[in-house]
Amino acid sequence: MLKVSKLICENEKLFAYAKKFAPITFFIYALHSPVLSECVKKITLKVGMPSLIQFLLACIIDIGFSVLAALIFRKIFPSCFVILNGGKREK
Asked: How big is the CA angle at 20 (ends 9 and 84), to the nearest 5 degrees?
């Protein structure tokens, strides 16, 4: 992960893209725990799926849903999003 982070920081285009997600990081942090627990509950009901695949699938669904929810919420309710996000506004 450190190597990937270093690559992102060194590449200007990747860094500019990643920087767009900075204002929604707290929202994702706050939302990920309940979403992840629900994903794990639903995915573990699938029989015959290896544990590693269950874990990775739950994480991918969690991250995707959290980012999508943050982007939609920010678009529809921008002032409410700022309050829920700890007052962090985009620059």
From this structure: 125
Helix then strand count (H, E) for the chain reads 5, 0
Q: What is the pLDDT of residues 38-68, one digit of tens each?
A: 777 777 666 566 777 777 887 888 888 888 8
Rounded CA-CA distance 85/69 in Å is 13
Amino acid of residue 66: S
Looking at residue 10, its pLDDT comes to 92
Of 12, 59, 13, which Cα lies nearest the Cα of 39? 59
pTM recorded for the entire structure: 0.69
The sign of the dihedral angle between the CA atoms of 21, 25, 30, 33 is: positive
Backbone region of residue 11 per phi and psi (left: phi > 0; alpha: psi in -120 to 50; beta: other values): beta
